Amino acid sequence: MKSLLKEDLYAKIFHSALLAIAVTDKQGNFMAVNPAWCKSLGWTETEAKTLNIKDITLVEEQPIINQELNKIAQGKVSSLRKEQRYKRKDGTMFWADLYSSALFDDKEKVIGILDIFVDIDTQVISEKVHGELFQSLEILNKELSNANIGLKRQAKYDSLTGLYNRWVMEEMLNKEINRSLETKRGFAVGIADIDDFKKVNDNYGHDCGDFVLVKLTQSFLQKIRVTDSVCRWGGEEFLFLFPETIEQGATIVVERIRKSIEELNIDYKGNLIKVTITIGVSFYNGQDHLDAKELVNRADKALYKGKSSGKNKVVFS
Question: Is 236 in the active site?
Fold first, then answer.
């Protein structure tokens, strides 16, 4: 009597459970399924008894299922848990957590397998969406970071020559003026302009003009001192900052720069391009009360004098 009551209780639990439960033989053939299983997978109880576990499993995952069934059937493991996709009757797929346990007879011999399917489709999809969203956000963050780096670089450097731009150099000039006032050591500022640069653009095109600007930049960087700076001031003009120097020292460096351009041979698509530069220089002695704009204006006036008196020369204000 107690045995019958126990079996009846198990039957009620089996049929009333909200989780999909199935019993298969050792070969994976379905022997019994509960209503929750039928609702979840779409087959009737009668149809289920004509199916094998392989029929609800993806083809590529069937070899693994065979291995795991054999382990349970042979008593090598008493239970297992795995997360994988399963097929419904209508062909749709869903993710489930599978809990499989061996069923034993009175002699502890495996006679079947109890499978409990926990539908985790929503969870897996949610995790996948979150994962894809997180990945997309990471990519977007990198793109924004790169864009920010690019913007910062654009704010500091000339896009063609890679030199500091005008705004950075103005800040450097102000700092150098303050330093000079404290140390009483002078510095020099030079403005270089390419002589007759319009002829280069007119004769060979603006691409050639850009090429010449880059070549001159390379020469400038080779001839200035480590402590010196140069920026593209605008168009074909370049501004040099020579910190902590006397006029004699500045003259040597500026003349070296001018001469290097005079001797420079630029090959553009088989065309030999020769250019010269004129440089106007102003000197700050550490006592003058000039701001950056006034200092540059002095150098610019010296440049104009050089242009008016023959070009290809260095003129001090």
Answer: yes
